[in-house]
Amino acid sequence: MVNIWKEAARLEETREPFAVVTVIRSVKPTSAVVGAKALIKSSGEMIGFVGGQCTQSLVISQALKCIEKGISQIVLITSDTPQTRTDDIIVLPMTCHSEGTVELFIEPKIPAPVLLIIGHSPIADYLKKTAAYLDFQIRTVGLENVHSEGTSSLSGFTETIQANLSPGAFVVVASMGLYDVESIRALQGFALSYVGLVTSPKRREAVLNDLKNQGVSEEFCSFISAPVGLDLGAVDPAEIAITILAEIIEYRRKRRTFAPFTSHVIENKTRREVIDPICHMVVDLNTTLHKAEYQGKEYGFCCPRCRQEFLNKPEKYAYTVEV
Description:
- There is one protein chain.
- The chain folds into 3 domains: 4-109, no CATH class; 114-254, NAD(P)-binding Rossmann-like Domain (Rossmann fold), CATH 3.40.50; 273-317, no CATH class.
- It has 11 helices and 14 strands.
- The chain has helices at residues 4-13, 53-69, 122-131, 143-148, 154-163, 180-185, 201-213, 218-223, 237-254, 304-312, 314-317; strands at residues 18-27, 37-41, 46-48, 73-78, 89-93, 101-109, 114-118, 137-141, 169-173, 192-197, 273-275, 282-284, 290-294, 297-301.
- Strand 13 and strand 14 form a beta hairpin.
- The protein starts with a helix and ends in a 6-residue tail after the last helix.
């Protein structure tokens, strides 16, 4: 059996998002035990045990939503009625025939986003120092460094920038006009949360025109924040760095993202979640052992009993709801 903490450490090292699920309350006859934990990968794989088969698909489904939204959530799975949803707790029906109640706390673990600072300048230096107090993985790239490493070509610089990017990265170009256009061109085709350019309002138009003439899309040019930072009347490099970080925080918390955005949740073609038409439990159609076909449609069930009930009166239950 895989130790969930060892797996969590591995996922953190490889910067893969996941969620930790903890049982915080249980009422028999559920098999869940208070304090039990499980780890849910962004692919939908579960490691650990927080309840029987009846709750597993529900837990995975809710954990993936938490990973996607980046928020923690309390989920109550119960046979008691009525089932209601509040801002603090999501209440779902217990579909096991043995009934019972289990309450879970789902905590997503999202890797710190990359903040890529391109260029060597006083603003870039202050930005790096100040950003160290925030939850970012800071990376720096400069054409001067690429030269010193023996790769003087522009293609080498482009490759270095792209090697330091990751989905949803924040990028600030602070080369002070030395290689602004080249840096921004290297960002094309990546799902980014923010691109800021340190420039003056007058020079901004010249840079954007150069980018458009070199094939950069109007959409991407419109996404660039230039001049970078919130207008707080900043004067010196340290103050300007703070206005840049303030704008980055705004973009991050409001989730402004240049499409196509790569979600935290890894696309997983091995899962296809549907609702069991008998007990309304969430079932993975691709892995469940209990299936039936009716009028050209495939249905998934949590157990043989539900499948048999469907086969007895398929016209009554003939619908499939995908989650």
